[in-house]
């Protein structure tokens, strides 16, 4: 497996970055700020292309980093098309299938744009696509909030290992990983800087 | 491992804020067309009510149902309790039925504590005698926080029958945890003996406290628990400790008027005060469902409880 060799490399990190929450070796940066910026710009254009101008599009970010990514995508689409795109947040904690395996967690905010989701094209946005269970929970949550015309999925990093028949419509980067690795997305708004880190499971707190 | 909610003192400041923040998110569910979350699917919540109750029982039932739990309602009237079954035997019956959560109201102080030692599920105190009623305190704090913002440094006045009031005790404990300054106002006969332990001020003069209050909570005069003459006449009580329109006018502009219900209109609170825009009495009932959803979710939703006291014997 190529993955085994990947995790061995110690990463060089810029001294000023805030990695307090990352224990031990911080892992290797596979995407830097500029890569993330380009990926999001491309996804924004793909969304506009696929939805023919994005008239009915509502962006819904999955808590917490998905919300940040959804806002960035909304800004980019607004720059290109010259009009705002409705953008909201979705907390899927209450719909997760692994709730009983951990202590009850604090809830994030679910905020739908004023227009709601009925009859719209909802683009769910998240940072990492892994097992697909978070997306399944998001689809269930969406089902209780309204009836979109269509639901699409935009993801910054697809790391594989799906456990459910779910795939993304828009992908920032396909990242082959092993189950012994963890992918961690850092975003300036949440973590002080932009990066996607790949490291051994013990050293990084998993994004999913 | 923490798994019961028996006293407001079981909650640390972080626990209490977690409940209030969770309730804030869950309050949104009430505005949706589908007022239901799948979180407690397959879990059973038993409402064990040995004492009459309208809003608390309905509120817990609505909360559990909105989280998709199965709800079994048990009231002492019409059950084997009227044939002389003891609390312990009732508890063992519930245990055999596999209750994940037991919400208990009992006229004996300490009944939920005893129950917690007999059942495997989480026990939530919904009012025990004159001891505590922690979810009422949480919903009161939630209501105050929504109207007044952060509670630290806020001045809350609790007026009336403190001696018989589980609401007063739970509120004093929780509000102190949240950093509010509490003043209790009551005739000396309606104060418990050991007030020195309570984290609050005591006053006998309502008019002196009113202008400094951000929230005033009127307690019900509990005629059913009064087996002695605690005050000369209802009329005299109402004159000295009741909240009427002239007294409400002495409150600061932003202050709110609260009452846990059921009210004795004309005794501790005048009808015009209860129906005024400063009264949060109806709001408190609506908030009760959100707060109880939060408590049930945090106690039963995960592999172990996120708030409350350690389980007995652990």
TrEMBL record, chain B:
Example GO molecular function: amino acid binding
Binding of carbamoyl phosphate, residues: 55-56, 105, 133, 136, 261-262
Protein's job: Catalyzes the condensation of carbamoyl phosphate and aspartate to form carbamoyl aspartate and inorganic phosphate, the committed step in the de novo pyrimidine nucleotide biosynthesis pathway.
Domain Aspartate/ornithine carbamoyltransferase Asp/Orn-binding: start-end pairs: 153-299
InterPro entries: Asp/Orn_carbamoyltranf_P-bd, Asp/Orn_carbamoylTrfase, Asp/Orn_carbamoylTrfase_sf, Asp_carbamoyltransf, Asp_carbamoyltransf_Asp/Orn-bd
Key words, A-Z: Pyrimidine biosynthesis, Transferase
Any Gene Ontology CC annotation: cytosol
Similarity-based family: Belongs to the aspartate/ornithine carbamoyltransferase superfamily. ATCase family.
Ranges of residues in domain Aspartate/ornithine carbamoyltransferase carbamoyl-P binding: 3-145
Lineage, broadest ranks: Bacteria, Bacillati, Actinomycetota, Actinomycetes, Streptosporangiales
Gene assigned in the entry: pyrB
Principal EC category: transferase
GO BP terms in the entry: 'de novo' pyrimidine nucleobase biosynthetic process; 'de novo' UMP biosynthetic process; amino acid metabolic process
Keyword DNA-binding attributed: no
Protein name: Aspartate carbamoyltransferase
């Amino acid at each position: 497996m190529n993955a085994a060799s990947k995790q061995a490399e110690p990463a060089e990190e810029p001294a000023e970055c805030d990695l307090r929450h990352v224990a031990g070796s911080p892992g290797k940066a596979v995407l830097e700020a500029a890569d993330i910026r380009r990926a999001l710009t491309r996804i924004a254009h793909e969304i506009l292309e696929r939805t023919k101008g994005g008239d009915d599009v509502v962006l819904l970010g999955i808590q917490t980093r998905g919300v940040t990514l959804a806002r960035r995508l909304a800004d980019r689409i607004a720059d290109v098309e010259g009009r705002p795109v409705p953008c909201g947040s979705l907390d899927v904690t209450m719909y997760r299938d692994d709730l009983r395996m951990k202590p009850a967690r604090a809830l994030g905010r679910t905020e739908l744009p004023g227009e709601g989701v009925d009859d719209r094209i909802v683009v769910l946005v998240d940072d990492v696509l892994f097992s697909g269970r978070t997306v399944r929970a998001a689809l269930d949550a969406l089902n209780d909030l309204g009836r979109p015309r269509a639901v699409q999925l935009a993801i910054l990093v697809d790391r594989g290992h799906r456990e459910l028949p779910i795939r993304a419509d828009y992908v920032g980067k396909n990242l082959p990983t092993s189950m012994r690795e963890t992918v961690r997305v850092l975003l300036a708004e949440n973590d002080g800087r932009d990066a996607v880190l790949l490291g051994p499971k013990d050293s990084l707190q998993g994004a999913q | 491992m923490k798994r019961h909610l028996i006293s407001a003192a079981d909650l640390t400041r972080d626990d209490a804020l977690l409940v209030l923040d969770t309730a804030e998110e869950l309050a949104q569910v009430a505005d949706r067309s589908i007022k239901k979350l799948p979180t407690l699917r397959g879990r059973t919540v038993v409402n064990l009510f040995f004492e009459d109750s309208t809003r608390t029982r309905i509120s817990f039932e609505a909360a559990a149902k909105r989280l998709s739990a199965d709800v079994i309602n048990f009231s002492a009237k019409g059950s084997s309790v009227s044939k002389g079954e003891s609390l312990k035997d009732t508890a063992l019956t519930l245990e055999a039925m596999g209750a994940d959560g037991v919400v208990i109201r009992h006229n004996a102080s300490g009944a939920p504590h005893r129950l917690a030692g007999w059942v495997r599920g989480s026990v939530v105190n919904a009012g025990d005698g004159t001891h505590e009623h922690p979810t009422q305190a949480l919903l009161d704090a939630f209501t105050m926080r929504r109207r007044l913002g952060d509670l630290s440094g806020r001045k809350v006045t609790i007026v009336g029958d403190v001696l018989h009031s589980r609401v007063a005790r739970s509120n004093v404990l929780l509000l102190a945890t949240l950093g509010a300054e509490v003043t209790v106002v009551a005739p000396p006969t309606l104060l418990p003996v050991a007030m020195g332990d309570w984290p609050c001020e005591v006053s006998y003069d309502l008019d002196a406290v009113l202008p400094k209050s951000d929230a005033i909570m009127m307690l019900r005069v509990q005629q059913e628990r009064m087996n002695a003459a605690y005050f000369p006449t209802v009329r005299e009580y109402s004159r000295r400790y009741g909240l009427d329109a002239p007294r409400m006018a002495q409150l600061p502009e932003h202050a709110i008027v609260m009452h846990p219900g059921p009210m004795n209109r004309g005794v501790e609170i005048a009808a015009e005060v209860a129906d005024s825009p400063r009264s949060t009495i109806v709001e408190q009932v609506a908030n009760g469902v959100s707060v109880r959803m939060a408590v049930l979710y945090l106690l039963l939703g995960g592999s172990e409880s996120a708030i409350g006291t350690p389980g007995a014997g652990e």
